[in-house]
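This section describes the prediction task in plain terms. A model, or a person checking by hand, is given the sequence of a single protein chain and must write out its three-dimensional structure as a string of tokens. No templates, partner chains or ligands are provided. The sample shown here is typical of the held-out split.
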Amino acid sequence: MSEITYVRGDATVPSVKGVKVIAHVCNDIGGWGKGFVLAISRRWPEPEKAYRAWHRARASNDFGLGAVQFVQVEPYVWVANMVGQRGIRTGSRGVPVRYEAIDTALGGLAEKAVELDASVHLPRIGCGLAGGKWSRVEPLIIERLAKQGIAVTVYDHGEARS
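The expected answer:
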């Protein structure tokens, strides 16, 4: 079983050899413009374009909570757009994060990582704008990825978080 490696840095520039999948959580309303997606868009235009097209065509595809879209951005780098939050605002129904959707998306991510023989690189998904708790997300990553032998690196950008 692999463990999660924690590093300070930018998840969009993983410094390991081999195939890499950079994973992050998106909302289910087609919004792209705050949080980690900005770092992705600064490096590659394709993930945002693919996500927006996926959302536009949602009546005829699998777009929705728990779905994951893979976009190849370099010969050995893929971005996984994982739909793991309902809307974008905290309201009467709580925070936008949906742990079950993240869990389902991580299952799809695990399949793709095994297929590509890839490592997975991500920020603390679901814990920024989505309002989730790392204590709920980390066990999902361990179960779906690390226990399957997939190397996982979690990136903390800037100040240390609890």
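For orientation: The radius of gyration is 14 Å.
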